[in-house]
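Thread: WT7 complex, take 2
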Amino acid sequence: MILPSKEIVDQAYVKDYEKLYKEVQEDPEAFWENIAHELSWFKPWDKVLEWNFPYARWFVGAQCNIVNNALDRHQKTATKDKLAYIWVGQDKSERKYTYGELNEQVCKFANVLKSLGIRKGDKVSIYLPRIPEQFIAMLACAKIGAVHSVVFSGFSSEALKNRILDAQAKLVITANAYPYKDKVLESKKTVDEAIKDIPTIEHVIVVKRIESEGKGKETSIGNEVGQSNNSNNLTSSPNRPPNPNLMTAVRDLWYHELMAKTDTICSTEIMEATDPLFILYTSGSTGKPKGVLHAHGGYMVGIYLTLKWIFNLQPDDIWFCTADAGWVTGHSYIVYSPLINGATTFVYEGTPDYPHPGIWWELIQKYKISKFYTAPTAVRAMMRLGDEIPNKYDLSSLKILGSVGEPINPEAWMWYYKTIGKERCPIMDTWWQTETGMQMITPLPSSPLKPGSANKPFFGVEADVVDDKGSPAAVNTQGFLVIKKPWPAMLRTIYGDHERYKQQYWSTFPGIYWTGDEARRDEDGYFWIMGRADDVIKVSGHRLGSSEIESALVSHPFVAESAVVGIPHELKGQGVVAFVTLVSGQAPSETLKDELKKHVVTQIGALARPEQIRFAKQLPKTRSGKIMRRLLRQIASEGKITGDTTTLEDISVVAALSQDEE
Ligand code: WT7
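Output below.
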């Protein structure tokens, strides 16, 4: 157990977690109501929570807009001149926005969207790299009541297409191309491919991130730790002139041209607290990705408080969250919560290893970052490179560190604590999900820490570990992580599929929210998250569904059937292993392995690239025809099967023995 220093406790918003937690549990609604009073509303609520199982509506009857809290209200205070973002490009160029300047950009872009016919309730897909326009686009949508669906720029055209179709987006916002290490990735071309058969897309707005689309060198793409790049449309010839055919007349419009012609005044749409704010796609255990839907009111209250208290946000902090706004971490803790809190957020466009593996530490030194939030996969990658790199930099500005996305192993935790935090900075290992919207199980700066444990539930969050019947699991016994009461940033539903929402989250343990994770609770009530209990694979903290990768493989003409499992991976947490059976007439080969890996990359994105493809004559199945994944996982991680032509016949014996196991 690592105890907090007196200095940290003295500065902390919350000094006695146990006492406050108990108090709040007696009346969580009163607690959230008090917090909600710290924010601005156009009209107060009639009711804090309407819980109509399994739908929670928070701040019913209230009118608000998250942008009113993120930007508008700061225009009347000194925060107007404070920096909202310090953005540093891969080439170290800087762009800074005060709250006043950011607001102006958002107002202008909101007017652009309106002039193109975007109205309250319309869906807009955002496929942008990590540049300020990504945040401006999100905020402009929210301001006018449009619903944004941000798609991570590492997803392929096929994945983008599916997300645009499911969200029924009318407009797409992208960049012409963007730098990615020493390459240039052409996101506009990816969009063109994605929408070629989607006639409902009226316009594509294109941000000119670089002057010429064709400057990149031809390089093969690796799968980066903590980052995933796009496989599509890598430029092939160096110093190619700008593509004259990039823009399709009428449909495609340059962002800078639209912005030059528009007004800086725009009113913020009055929304019901329960109105949708965004859709964000995430992988589940079965089927296609789910559109997780979040609303304005409850979400804004939940994310506002969590960042403030968990990272003890202070006016002079420089906050650096290394995520991308293509994931929920970026939505909640790069865009909305830091702005609501009036904080200064630092953003680095590049990857943690480019132009050199000490870049993050260099940036922390230069910009005096005080609060730093990253993923275990990045910590492990840095740890492997050794202490010399971070030791070259002055990291004394750091006060609190954070971790998110997957369990952080105690070894990586200790390295992070000692080498980066110099044993001064507590680590906030925050457990949460796209669906929860906000951090849920976490230490606070004043908490005694156990390396590797996500600590205890945040206020108002009733988390528990249960057995397969839904009864509380015994101390130190592995069970299933559930949440027993609604919380403010809880998802409203799965967009367009209420049935799936019910099935996925509320049916495994009747009446309670099932997270999909396995966990245990120790004798001190600390939660230890063990990982997913379903077929979700976490590669570098990114969530992938086995079934999505399986469909991608089966869409290749040579593949008859496939089963995908996750196996432990030293850096990425988990790696993807695909078992594949071929259609008759096709023979296994190394070339085919490579081709199938590439095929997955084009279907989903580089983040889904399998570590291994294993050919099999058949897949082990139960009598009812279900693939025996547990068995495959075991085989894959034990490495029992090697070589191209390994049949699974040797394991069919095992399979027969354990036929009804899964
Ligand atoms: C899943 C949610 C939350 C933002 C990024 C991921 C795993 C997340 C932790 C943590 C152990 C964690 C869980 C969860 N996870 N944070 N601190 N310790 N596991 O969001 O893509 O929706 O994934 O990530 O398995 O269910 P997501």
